[in-house]
Amino acid sequence: MNKSELKRTLLALVPLGVLVVLLALDITIFGSDSILGASQVSLLVAAGICVALSIWRHKTPWTAFEEAIGLKIKEVAPAILILLLIGAISGTWMASGVVPAFIYYGLKIISPKVFLLTACVLCSLVSLMTGSSWTTIATVGVALLGIGRAEGFSDAMTAGAIISGAYFGDKISPLSDTTVMASSINKVPLFTHIQYMLKTTIPSFVITLVVFTVMGFSHGGAPAGQMEVYSQVLATRFHITPWLLVIPAITVFMIWRRLPAIMVLALSTLLAAVGSLFFQPEILREVGSAVTCGSSARILFTGVVETIYNSVFLETGNPEVNQLVASRGMLGMLNTVYLIVCAMCFGACMQASGMITDLARLLMPLTRTRTGLVTSTVVTGTALNGIVSDQYLAIILTSNLYGNTYDREGYERRLLSRSVEDSATVTSPLFPWSSCGMTQATILSVPTLAYAPFCLFNLISPLMSILVAIIGWKIVKPDEKA
Q1: Cα radius of gyration rounded to whole Å, the chain
Q2: pLDDT higher for 339 or 29?
Q3: Who has the most CB within 10 Å: 1, 15, 108, 381?
Q4: pTM, whole model, 2 decimals?
Q5: Which of 270, 113, 82, 299 is nearest to 177 (CA)?
Q6: Helix axes 62-95 and 334-352, enclosed angle (nearest 10)
Q7: What is the pLDDT of residues 411-456, one digit of tens each?
């Protein structure tokens, strides 16, 4: 690296350094609520500094930034639509009773002898269905923590099983905003991204389950009476029937048929909306009557629309179950959309100024081989979780840093999107000062550093990604594939 390149690299570190400082302040002041607006402001401020430095030092025209921002936002437009549909499907699946039914039947499989295994699997299934690790941990996870304590398991051990399962489901769920973000930013079709992730995710999860099974069999236990209370509350509040599982079954079939993600989510939302009219009319009347009055048909229609776009809270008589059956709707996704737009502005400015290239130059010596490239991506994604304290930003920044390198070296973008998810997504709850780490520690009342050693899936996934890169399994360049 010559003197000129060194100066450009040091200048490129300034906006990134400002962003890190501002995000640290956001986390300190606002905590997990920093994603509600403070992080977005920090991104825009850092983008402004990037623009000012580039215009001052490199004479980059303003039109270059406008064009780059427009292109970046255009790239994520499908992701924004998918995120809104995810909000819609989360509301309709909850109001129709699909998620409550799934949880109800899932709770029935709890066995004291395999508690850790069951807790991990149950959280993975709920997270897979809802696409939200946070919701899973805050609801089912809290209940499982109490059971684990009664059965003699340490809180840290139980929390590790809960978080491992929740992040496994979140990682491969087509309803997850991080999954959608990683695939869309790297221009990989959603289900192609998910299928390719299975090559590293399934082995990591199998190892996790084996270890939890061994750990669980070393403990005794009593029946989990608290789960029966949850089941009774759900059965009382919703009409639980196996017919409700037809809706997710059809959704899985559409995914298997590789229909476009937007089409799958839209059709599944429609199916759940219709299902709510048949299976949960009382729920719809309750939601609709809180907004409007008039004929029964009008109230039912209003209830359906409310579950699609608005946040819905249902009273069940149990505070934990109330959280479990609450839904966000489309409105609940707006903060994530806001964050994506602001992050795209920052990324576009860094790209238009050439600062992304300057930063990537520091990593170039490590990216000449397949193993070095994937390892660098995984290390960067993990490190950025600790630096910027937010998994969304870690996904976006890692993707922007390495996108051109993967293209230049001739590797498929799905390898990049998988490496990003294997690191930036799953390691986010392992840092005490990150939004995920603080949130999970607060929800479960277990310090991050206490549960982190037991988050087996989160620890194994980055290592598995590197191992698969070393072996070269299913990693081909487009020209080699041809």
Answers
A1: 23
A2: 29
A3: 381
A4: 0.71
A5: 82
A6: 160
A7: 889 999 999 999 999 999 998 777 788 778 877 888 888 999 999 9
Cα within 13 Å of Cα(461), Cβ side:
30
Tokens coding 285:
């009347």
The model's pLDDT over 332-367, given as tens digits with 9 standing for 90+, comes to 878 778 877 888 888 888 888 888 777 777 777 777
Residue 142: name the closest of 7, 316, 323 by CA: 323
Q: Which pLDDT value is given to residue 482?
A: 46
Alpha-carbon torsion 241, 242, 246, 252, what sign? positive
CB-based contacts of 282-287 (< 8 A; 24+ apart in sequence): 283/95, 283/97, 283/238, 283/314, 284/95, 286/314, 287/95, 287/312, 287/314
